Amino acid sequence: MRARRPSVAHESPNNALQRTLGAEPGGRWPVIACCGCGGQFREVDGPTHSYMQSSPGCWAAYGEVLAREYADYAGFSDIHRLTVDAFAAQHPHSSLVENTRSVGFHLCRLCLMLERGLDAHQANAAMLSIAAQKARFHPLPRPANLGAMTVADVYAAIGEDEHRNAVRRWAASVWQAWEPCHGIVRGWVAGIFPGA
After folding, report:
1. Under a CB-based contact definition with an 8 Å cutoff, are residues 47 and 56 in contact?
2. What angle do the packed helices 120-132 and 97-110 form, to 10 degrees?
3. pLDDT, tens only, 48-63
């Protein structure tokens, strides 16, 4: 049986989303835009990733989404990498080489899964080859908009089907946001996997 988030298990999706975004009754919690994805999250103190710049509220929501997927990994294994890739590609702001490589790496996997039709197992195997070639990745021009959906949309999902559908839509939204760079990413993929 899949574990559910106790804090939202008996709430409607709209109430869960409001809690995620900090829009609680009475406006007790201020909200801020994430410096990465632009999504609105409750303003909290807390950790963030070392090079994928985000607000602490966004990072916390992502952690909750990952915890949900790991709690039932067999049920979410086919979409889990899309979650990781969408978050990484939606937080490309650091100038550190690790961030440049991370964005390139995750965009390549989005390309392989969303355009080439590789399943999660095949895409994970391909990532070993991509990781070995990560030095070829260079900074990409950041899109003005990083997608209409954020991790908040997945966090607010109730039930496995809604979660899975939200992840797929989020990943597609992020991949589409990077459309001006698709040719570069496809070139990286083709250079690593000729004929792909």
Report:
1. yes
2. 140
3. 656 667 888 899 999 9
